[in-house]
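Format is sequence with structure; example below:
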Amino acid sequence: FKMVCFLRVCYCVDCQSFEKRTIQDPLQKLTARALMTLLACSTTAQNYAAKAGLIDTCVEQLKQTYSQLHLESVRPGKASHRKKDEGYLKEVKLTVEILRSALYCNDECKVVATDARLTLALSALWPWLLLDDPTMEAVLELLCVYTANCTTACSSLCGSGPGLVPGSKGSSTSSLMHSVMKLASGLAPDNSIIQNLAFSLLANLVMARDCRCLLQKNNFLQAFLSVPVPKAAGVKATSVSSGWSLLGLWLRLLAGLSFTEDGQQSILRLTGALELLADLAPHRRHALLTLHNLCFCPANKSHVIANDKAMKVLLSCLESKVMETRCMGASAIWALLHNNQRAKTALKCPSVRLRVEKAHSISKKGTFCMFHYSKQEPMNTYLLECLENLSQLLNT
């Protein structure tokens, strides 16, 4: 209890003194790091920060830094101002790192940041962020934390949320989300941290309907069809570098998008996307997950059933040694058959029935080795339910 009280006192002192310090002050970094540590591990400290005005102060500091950078940019002799710009950007980096800790998993603090118009402050700074990778990384990390499980925050990035100036109208070409899409779709070296963070942020944003609409209006998803696919597509991606490949980033984004009905339809509107996903599904989990989710949209069922590659992949999942893969295959086929006479007619053949019955029999007997069975038991129960329903539908 004494330690908690001590930390609260230190926190209050730091809140009051931090804004008075400059980037040259050796105590500023120590103060900031202590504050970040406390905020990241304590919801109580975060709430104190919001009430003490730390979040508002940080956002206001970003706005003031923009004004200073803008003044420097219009003065002659820009070369002599580079050092000043670097100093300002270091302040921005430190400020957004504190904000990231203050907003981490705290909806109330995110509301405070939205009311302070955090998005507008960062959008104004964007031209300078593009010139400094470390600061851009810190800003993208902040935005990932800010938008996680918060549709209001997501909406503020696409120009339709409460973070806008009253009376202004959001534009798909001027919103912060549009800038993030440019960042994600631009040419970048392999394993680019900035591009990886940009895609992670977009994966958060697609949980909001207006953000999904903006993706579709700007034809951003069309770029997926031109992503280079490795020749050795049959090799399962296991390394960190392959997980950060452009293809891997796109597949994670599409998987998130496919959890909503309008997102599923936007994926199917891409000519050739279903075929590409079917090609990748046997080797890429996120491609299989996306294909699985597409089967749950009534408007998409006929397209999936008519695609031989997709159906072949889903049926082959029933024979996989990986329980999750078998589960996704059985679940997808069950979804296709539900209230769909055309699907029942197409799949009522001896070969399909045999695969389903075999998978059902094996799952009941527990022939496949299962590590940590207690953790897999719910999945095995769901798998059996899927297969039992499939057998019933195919035999009626």
